[in-house]
Design goal:
Order of helices and strands: EHEHEEHEHHEEEHEHEHEH
Helix content: 40-55%
Shape: globular
Largest sheet: 9 strands, parallel
Low-confidence stretches: none
Structural class: alpha/beta
Radius of gyration: 19 Å
Number of helices: 9
Strand order of the largest sheet: 3-2-1-11-10-9-8-5-4
Mean pLDDT: 95
Number of strands: 11
Strand content: 15-25%
C-alpha cells in the first residue's frame, strides 16, 4: 500500500507569511519520505469541523501550482474539486496547465460539492443535490472531450453548452490526467466512478464498510462493462498521530484494509505545519505499510 498526504490546514503558527516556505518544505519532506500523492482541499472557506470559515484557506490550484514548482515526482491533485466551483471547460484547462507544467503529475479530483456556506458567502450558485450530480456527469464528459484531441467540437448538455472544446497544449499525462471521483454514495457517485473514473476515494470508516463500498463499485462496473481492476482504489485517513505509539496504532488499524485492494492511503493531518509531521510520522509510516503483507 502506498501513502499520500492531504494538506488541509493553513493555520501556520507564524501566520500567512510562513505558508510558502512551509508548503515548499512539506513537498520536499513528502518526496524524501517516499510519498506518492500530495493533495490540498478545494474550498473557499475552511470547513467547520476543521477550524471554521474564519481559519485560513488557500485557493487550491494556485497552491498545487506552487507545489509543482517545489516537487519533482509526487502526484498532485485536489481532494476534491466541487463541480460548482469552476466552469468545466475552465476546470479542464486549469488541470491541463498543472499537468503540463508539472511534467504529467496532475490528477483531477472532482465531486458533487456540499459546503453551502462558502457558496452563499461568495455568491456562487449552489443548486440542489440532484442538479449538482447532473452537472458533475456533464463536467466529466466535458473534460474527457477536451482531453481527446480528435473530439474538438461543440458540447450540448442540459447545464453546459460549449461551442468548442479546444485544449492546447494537450495534457502530458497519457491519455489524460487521472480522474479521481471523491465520495462513496452508492447510487450516483460510485456509478460515476465506474463510468468515468480512473480512481475512487473512500473514507477509512472500517474495513467492513470499505469492503461494502468496493462491492457496490464492482457491481456498477459490471453494469457499465468496466474492468473493476482498472480503477485505482484510495482512501482518506484522518491522522492526529503525535508519537510512536500512535504510529503503532495506525499500523494495526491499516492492516485491516491491506487485503481489500486499496492502492493508496491518504493521510490527512490536522496541522498547519505539515512538513515536520511528514518527517516524523509519514516517513516511518511509508516503510511500515510497505512491509505489510
Amino acid at each position: 500500500m502506498r501513502v499520500g498526504v492531504h494538506i488541509n490546514r493553513f493555520n501556520h503558527p507564524s501566520g500567512a507569511p510562513a505558508l510558502g516556505a512551509e508548503l515548499a518544505a512539506a513537498g520536499a519532506a513528502a518526496e524524501a519520505a517516499g510519498v506518492s500523492w500530495l493533495s490540498v482541499m478545494d474550498h473557499y472557506f475552511q470547513m467547520e469541523f476543521n477550524g471554521g470559515a474564519e481559519d485560513p484557506m488557500l485557493e487550491a490550484y494556485s497552491t498545487l501550482a506552487f507545489l509543482a514548482a517545489h516537487t519533482e515526482t509526487v502526484q498532485l491533485g485536489a481532494l476534491v474539486t466541487g463541480v460548482t466551483y469552476r466552469h468545466p471547460g475552465l476546470l479542464a484547462k486549469i488541470a491541463t496547465t498543472l499537468d503540463v507544467l508539472s511534467g504529467g503529475r496532475a490528477a483531477l479530483g472532482i465531486g458533487a460539492a456540499w459546503y453551502d456556506r462558502e457558496h452563499e458567502g461568495l455568491g456562487v450558485p449552489f443548486p440542489p443535490l440532484a442538479e449538482r450530480f447532473e452537472r458533475l456527469e456533464e463536467a466529466l464528459r466535458i473534460c474527457l472531450q477536451m482531453w481527446d484531441p480528435a473530439a474538438n467540437g461543440p458540447f450540448e448538455g442540459t447545464h453546459y453548452r460549449l461551442a468548442e472544446t479546444l485544449c492546447v497544449p494537450a495534457p502530458v499525462s497519457s491519455p489524460h490526467p487521472e480522474i479521481m471521483i471523491g465520495g462513496s454514495g452508492e447510487k450516483k457517485t460510485l456509478r460515476l466512478v465506474a463510468r468515468y473514473g480512473d480512481a475512487c476515494n473512500l473514507f477509512a470508516t472500517s474495513p467492513q464498510e470499505v469492503t461494502h463500498k468496493l462491492d457496490v463499485l464492482r457491481r456498477h462496473c459490471d453494469t457499465e462493462g468496466r474492468d473493476y481492476a482498472e480503477i485505482r482504489k484510495t482512501m482518506t485517513y484522518t491522522a492526529d498521530a503525535a508519537d510512536d505509539s500512535d504510529l503503532d496504532a495506525f499500523t494495526r488499524d491499516i492492516a485491516g484494509y491491506t487485503k481489500l485492494g486499496i492502492d493508496t492511503v491518504i493521510l490527512a493531518p490536522r496541522t498547519g505545519a505539515p512538513a515536520e509531521w511528514i518527517e516524523r510520522f509519514t516517513a516511518p509510516a511509508v516503510q511500515r505499510l510497505a512491509d505489510l503483507d
